[in-house]
Design a protein that fits this description.
mainly alpha; rod-shaped; membrane; transmembrane helix; transmembrane
C-alpha cells in the first residue's frame, strides 16, 4: 500500500479538526458518549476525504499503461 501524500494528510487532518469543531458546536453535547460519537464520525470523514484526494501520478500512469498519452494520442511503446 503506498504511503499517503502530504496533500492527503493535510486534507484529512483539516477535515477531522474542522468537522469535529463544527459538530461539537452545533450539537452542544456535553456527555462523554456524544463526544466519542462525534470524534469517531469526524475520524471516518477525515479518512474518507484523505482517500479520495487524487494521487499526483496515478492518472498518467494508468493512461501510459493503456498506451495513450494524456492528450489521447497513441504513444509508441517499441521501435
Amino acid at each position: 500500500m503506498p504511503r499517503p501524500t502530504a496533500a492527503q494528510l493535510a486534507y484529512g487532518a483539516s477535515t477531522v479538526i474542522f468537522s469535529t469543531l463544527a459538530m461539537l458546536l452545533l450539537s452542544q453535547t456535553s456527555s462523554g458518549v456524544g463526544i466519542a460519537v462525534i470524534a469517531l464520525a469526524a475520524l471516518a470523514l477525515g479518512l474518507l476525504v484523505a482517500m479520495t484526494v487524487p494521487v499526483p501520478g496515478a492518472r498518467g500512469a494508468q493512461q501510459e499503461a493503456a498506451g495513450t498519452s494524456p492528450e489521447g494520442k497513441r504513444v509508441p511503446t517499441a521501435l
